[in-house]
């Protein structure tokens, strides 16, 4: 397949011809874009930067845990997804009160409003979870969270019709995320502490059980232990019982005093503590209470008595707290003394001369108690650490750049939209120009006609401006033989001759007259639709052949609208129609052939319009004999035929043609009509006869020869 060169000049000419279409398309696109830009609601965007610290900050454990790069990247990506989560967004909705916000609040959507307007749905606002979900969807659409490359920075962007609200929403989302992160860390620590608290209770029970087992063993074997010479176990046990008894009495007294102080039972306090100071204060209180009961309620004396009574009761409470603190201190001292006695008893027991099995059991009890105590202390220390850690937690993320209200809207981007609309309009305009030029509109160049129809184009014929309507452009070959029009006709004749020689359709060379046993050629001139100038082209081509010395006959085969006689300015009562219809007395062909005095061209006019179907005349034996006689007596026979699409005659006439000239009017004939007519001709014509295109009535300024060759032409 041959490569086709890009015709830059043809493209530029096409753009110049369709400049108005391109400009109109560009203006329309820019207009639509401009209307859209000014109709759209401006949207402002604000962005907050959050830094994720992957070292897992803890104030009471400052040494960071070392982690791999992949783990840190996964951590940052996880934080991005947490920022996008509905939990954080719902927290923002609650904090900012977005349920009642004008922009994000509960309202009917476009679909619901349309259905309500058409009375196909309810116009009620959503309630409950549906309302929250609608607001959540709007907030989701208004925010975006993304990681900045491979850094630990997360960009939180919010969009709103209000620049202040956009910045506020972005900052609120970042703050809610950090707050949620810190709360999650605190809850995790407290959950661990609660687990340890449960273990602490078990550890306490283990200690008590171990101590009880040891004490029970000693109590059960006290007689055996006391019988050992030099053993002080019995005396120590007696002392321990005495201390334990005193401790229990003081503990009971402490509990009674604490309950009396809480209920302000001053009489019980005085009776239990047996303190002279408390007794004196109680006596004073009772006296003040008695005096107050007999005094008037609002008198100054009553007021003073109330104040004094309140002061005495306060003194009683303070004194009671002092006594209670002293009691608790005594209980603690007795606890320490009892613990010391127990340790001394254990030490004496373990150092005494006891059977091996008894000592082994004692060691087991002691070891169990020590282990329970050690475990308890470890759990208690860890529980304390977790409690402190829960109070000293800090977030792993922090805001490094807070969002500020934007000064300009991020949407719509007027410049970008207009630029894109301009480029789109320009591209669309150029595309429409090519479509119109190559598929819809008329033909404006030989290359375009060749490309679309796939037929050879032998030339273009310029448009001739006529001074009078009665004039014919074919007269230019006589009046202005050196004109551009005349030259284009002669060029068309030369190309037709070349194709005829190449196809070997001629029995005799074109430069020699038809001799004995030789035949002339038939050149058919047609078009797809009327008013394309085919009659002018046919007559001009016939005159060009006649001027070159060829015996030439032109036959006006357009029996529906004969026009050759009008172009030549001749009248005849007898023509082709009368001859074929048998309405003439003579049967001699030569008697009805006229002569063009200017060029010597022989002419067979159509004379009158047919009043019967013309196809039956064209397909008659009389017409076949006419063509046979013509090619015997003339070198060239030119058939001016009717257009192919409206009349069928041309399809029958094409069977006689050695070459077909298909006339297409410049920038006028629709391409679909041309393709349709050519398709019909291809099926009807002689297979060896070429179809040659002619672009007719081309505007001179569009001619491929341009002004640089005008000095070669005359007229």
TrEMBL record:
The cellular location(s) given in this protein's UniProt record come to: Cell inner membrane
Q: What domain of life is recorded for the organism?
A: Bacteria
From which organism does this entry originate?
Pelagibacterium nitratireducens
This protein's name:
non-specific protein-tyrosine kinase
What is this entry's stated membrane topology?
Multi-pass membrane protein
Q: Give the signal peptide range.
A: none
State if Nucleotide-binding is listed as a keyword: yes
UniProt cross-references to Pfam families, sorted A to Z = AAA_31, GNVR, Wzz
Catalysis performed (reactions) = L-tyrosyl-[protein] + ATP = O-phospho-L-tyrosyl-[protein] + ADP + H(+)
The residue ranges of the Tyrosine-protein kinase G-rich domain are: 369-435
Coiled-coil annotated residue ranges, if any: 186-213, 310-344
Any GO MF annotation of the entry: non-membrane spanning protein tyrosine kinase activity
The family line of this record is: Belongs to the CpsD/CapB family.
Q: Which residues form the Polysaccharide chain length determinant N-terminal domain?
A: 4-94
InterPro entries in the record, alphabetically? Answer: AAA_dom, Bact_polysacc_biosynth/exp, GNVR, LPS_length_determ_N, P-loop_NTPase, Wzc-like_C
